[in-house]
Amino acid sequence: MIRKLFTRRSEHPLADGKELARILAELRVETPAKAVEEVMSWFESLQHGDDFRVLQYFQLLRQLDEAAQPHLRRLARDYLNSGGGSALVEQRLWTASHAYWAAVAAQYATCIERARLDAKGSDAFKALLPLAVARVQAARCRQLKWQAYRYGPIDDFLWKELATTYLAAEAAGHAQQPMQLYPAQKALTSVAQQYLHANVFFSSSMDSLTPLQIELADRLIAYFLPGFVFSVDCRPDSVYWLDAASGSAPVRLARHPGAKRPGLRFLSPGTARQALDELIHLVERGDVPDDLNLGGQYPQRVLVPVLYHLRAHWAVRPPQRRHQRHVVKTRMNVLHGFEQSHAVFSGSRPPWAAESGSETWLVENVSLGGFRALFDDSSAQTLKLGELLCMQPEGGDNWLLGASRRVNRLAGERASLGIQVLSRRARSIDLRPRQSGFSAAVRIPGIWLHDSGEPGVLRIVLLTGGFNVQVPVEFSDDGQRHLLTPLELEESGGDYEIGRFRDQAIA
């Protein structure tokens, strides 16, 4: 519809300064979703403004893009805080944001291509070319993050565009040029840094994090990025390699890259791992550096698991599969959450009926450490990472306690969920706080992971907020009383947390 407002020559609304100012002013006060939709409509209209010179085209695109930024930040916050809300609303937020970054990347790429084809008429634009290229690269990085929110798969096209943009900027001599990407962003960046960020992001295994954790990890990567080393030579601490000439994603050095070639690059954590360890110590003491921008205030229990995750994946030897997988085709009955799991392991097995909240999942492979279940993509919308699961293999009478760890979208509108087995011999118990030499009357439900192997230490699953490092607890089992001294909070999930306790048998 918007094409009908102007002719192809000179009547485009954005060509009039007063009209442009009015449009930008209205965008500032519009609702976020509507504003982003309007900006995308103006992007579409620019594709038919053939009479714009490259510099004017870029300036219009730049102003529209900058007007959209605060609205995009609001949409992202709404998406990250939409857990447990409407799946339709969540889908709309995701689609609007992901589509915007794809559209604006294409617009900046068009601008750069116009400048290449009209070198003589683009002299005034040359000074702004590095900014245009950096914004293309940044938009591709945003696409990568939004695809990670939905657990992929990451488009091959995206990796090729990221690599092509990086190599072109390197050849032109401005890949390392620092610049302020947007007026509201104080930190400087460059095309090369954006490409490095994308590769560190991918190698940090985001498919085992929730969307909010992915956002925090992304901000932490930006904070630690100067410590990483991205080089043409393989260093002793290099962990990943990639071929920018072919547009490949990073690959662990466990697989050798072969002969040296121009596009080959190596990635190492450099000093980032040590700096991350220092931050972990600060956060565990309740401190957060003033220059660390996480986009909000987050409690220690939210931030620490993300820091631990990054520490594991930024090691010289990142986590590897410990147990061999075996292909199977079997079904598994599944119950969700702490309460239902506690009921099962207390001996009150629920009936398999719709009202019990049970489901039947198809398992495609197993290992000593867990399972991999398959779903159609529509069912994957409701899958949650970090959810406690109580599982019974079809035909069996034993119950397993597990947690969802990794989500991947597959080809053919399918998705898989990786499930870690927490215990094959879990047992429900009732804990009571022990204060001033006597046991309080407060009952704390727990699930004892009875097959944990550390002598003298018990791992117990509690409802969220149930672990208090300052309060000992006790329980009785087969006539034996146990006094538990809290050691540390090992993990926090959807509605549960796992605490480690020093065990002392008492009379």
What percent of the residues sit in helical stretches (DSSP H or I)?
Answer: 25-40%
The value of Rg in angstroms is 27 Å
Number of helical stretches of at least 4 residues: 12
Unreliable spans are 1-10
Compile the SSE list and pairings.
Elements: H1 17-29, H2 32-46, H3 54-80, H4 87-117, H5 129-149, H6 156-172, E1 179-180, E2 188-189, H7 191-203, H8 211-224, E3 229-231, E4 240-243, E5 251-252, E6 264-268, H9 272-284, H10 300-313, E7 326-336, H11 338-345, E8 359-367, E9 370-376, H12 377-380, E10 388-393, E11 400-410, E12 414-423, E13 426-435, E14 438-439, E15 444-449, E16 457-463, E17 473-477, E18 480-492, E19 496-506
Antiparallel strand pairs: 1-2, 3-6, 4-5, 4-6, 7-8, 7-10, 8-9, 9-12, 10-11, 11-12, 13-14, 13-15, 13-17, 15-16, 16-19, 17-18, 18-19
Walkthrough of the structure:
- It comes from Candidatus Accumulibacter aalborgensis.
- This is PilZ domain-containing protein.
- There is one protein chain.
- The protein is of the alpha+beta class and 507 residues long.
- It has 3 domains: 1-203; 326-423, predicted glycosyltransferase like domains (Thrombin, subunit H), CATH 2.40.10; 426-506, Beta Barrel (Thrombin, subunit H).
- It is built from 12 helices and 19 strands.
- A 6-stranded antiparallel barrel has the order 7-8-9-12-11-10. Strands 13-15-16-19-18-17 form a 6-stranded antiparallel β-barrel. A 4-stranded antiparallel sheet has the order 3-6-4-5, with helices on one face.
- Strand 4 and strand 5 (251-252) form a beta hairpin.
- Mean pLDDT is 87; it is low at 1-10.
